[in-house]
Amino acid sequence: MVVGSDKTRKWYSSIWCFLAIVFYVPSFSDTAVATEPPQVYLSASSGSLEDIFELSVVSNSSGGVSQPRFEPSADFSVSYAGQSSQIQVVNGIATSEMRHLFLLKPKRVGELETPKGIIQIAGQAHEIASLPVRIDTRTKERGEKNSSNGDEQISLSRDLSRTSVYVGEQLISTLELSSDSKIHQGSFDELTYDQFWKEDLSRPRPEMRQRNGQTTYLHQIRHALFPLTPGSLVIPPAKLQLRVERKRPLSGRFSFFDSGFLRMSQIEDVTVISESTPLEVLPLPTLPESMSDGGAHPHIPVGEVAISLGLNTEPIEAGQSKTVTISIESDGNIRPIDKLSLDVPESISVYADTPVDTDISTTERFRMKRTYKLSLVPKKGGTFDIPGVAIRFFNPKLRQYAWAKTRDIRLIATSQPASAVLQGAPAERPRTREDIEQGESKERVIYRYREESLIERLSRSISLSLALFTASMVILLIFCVNAILRLRVKRPQQGTPSVLAGDFAHPLQLREHFIERLSSLLGAKDGESFRGYHLEQEIDSHILSEQLKIILSRHLERLDSASYGSEIDAGNQEELKHLLSESQSILNEVSKCSNGG
Predict the structure, then answer these.
(1) Separation between Cα atoms, residue 587 and residue 492, nearest integer Å
(2) Angle (nearest 5°) at CA 101 between 98 and 106
């Protein structure tokens, strides 16, 4: 009985250990998953009681995501419309993007807020913040003020994100075209922003909404505006020429030769005009005296500014160049900062490349990244400490000026005289008179103390011929191997352009091969590669997925930083393999998009 009880206890303890491993280990792994707060998007920031707003809750996580739950709201009635998911691979880590869609119906008029909620992401609770919405008593009377031909089915309105901003501060202008008929073509005759710096934020986005049981087509065009002068400004009306498809009336005469006879519709030209919009622009405060000097660029962006520095700190020889990469990222207007200057000594020459701009905007905010490359060439050896780059900016939220600075630059240059080059070589014997008389380039003479036989002469001549033949074969073999390797490198570009082949000893080689394969997928001709702004245009026109565009932009930035900065050493093969794997995965996704997948 005692033995049996011991066995029974051991058996029960084994079961309990197994259950603990099964149930508790996954819970620990879930808590280790890093989660990010959800992002909330609203289809419009204003409307009427007749409108239905679309609220999207987007979450990115490698763990599970539950359906969001909203608190009871006195402003909106909420109904669940469904969900969609998308899997993406970033830096070798697979994450799932889950999008939940809700329909909001306003209950009253005024300044409302969307309901707050909670969502569970990988076992962690996150709060869903509320968004402000302005609800009017009724929709605008279309055809009275914003339609030049009295059309009551088409309207054009403008909405500003803010009515009071500082000089140079960003505000979003949204032009919304509402039509009960399909629009085939549209062009602006008058869309001027004389007192603003304008950036295109998004292309026209067609949407369909149900209003009073009738389908309405909405087209939104957004611009980021930066006012240039203070005062009470008025944005002039926008004038839009349209070609609209309308249904023919059931009564009336039809012409058999009319192009729209069979489809029972007709194309009409319509002109719509929006209303003028007032705006109050505040002047910037006086710049403090402590920030008036410092060698910074005279242009002061208004908004948040982030600046970074990329530099390889290894020493170089005098006369060689060292590339310094400086990136400025801001939601302010940084385009006037066309060049950066460094306070370098006279013994260092500076050569600047043309800045490269990268648009990292979202649908709600304009944001740009500008990258500068400066080549430093020291004329002599030594250690040079160069002050970092500083940018002044005005923070409109805090209403104060601030600095954005990089770390200082240390450049180490070494000079190599002739003694350093010959260091370690044996000392040369001084020339004697005997060397001069006999000559130093005298051929070696072999003295033979007996006559060579016929066999010895033949073997010596055959050995020479065999050596020449072997050398010729080696040269031919090298040529053939080189030709085969060239064919193998070119073959992926012709057959499967999404495959990266070869061993890369430096990130710059991987970057060049990645751009070549990407350009081939985007329709480049043989031997052609898209660069800079041309590459951004091709990506924007060929790739429809916004998520894939963001992944491509971040990967290209990482390749640039690894090639010209100090993130990856040339000998770090593990990081190179990781970059190669990520590049291959992204090219496969681009190949699917280009093939219609």
Answers:
(1) 12
(2) 150
395 class by beta-carbon count within 10 Å (0-12 exposed, 13-18 middle, 19+ buried): middle
Helix (H) or strand (E) holding 480: helix 454-494
Overall pTM surpassing 0.85 (yes/no): no
Q: Which fold has domain 293-414?
A: Immunoglobulin-like (2.60.40)
pLDDT tens for each residue of 288-347: 988 886 678 889 999 999 999 998 889 999 989 999 999 999 999 999 998 888 889 989
DSSP 283-326: PPPPPPGGGS-SS--S---BS-EEEEEEE--S-EETT--EEEEE
* Whether residue 448 has pLDDT greater than 50: no
Q: pLDDT, tens digit, for every residue of 375-390?
A: 999 998 899 999 999 9
Structure tokens at 587: 């090219």
* Segments making up each domain of the chain, as ranges: 39-136, 154-282, 293-414, 491-594
User: Is there a contact between 407 and 429 (Cβ–Cβ < 8 Å)?
Assistant: no
Q: Which residues of 225-239 are buried (b: 16+ CB within 10 A; e: fewer)?
A: bbbeeeeebebebbb
Cβ(316)–Cβ(378) below 8 Å: yes
Task: Examine the pLDDT at 461 and tell me if it is beyond 70.
Answer: no
Q: Given phi > 0 = left and psi -120 to 50 = alpha, else beta, which region is 110?
A: left
CA distance 55 to 103: 6
Bridge partner list, 240: 188, 272
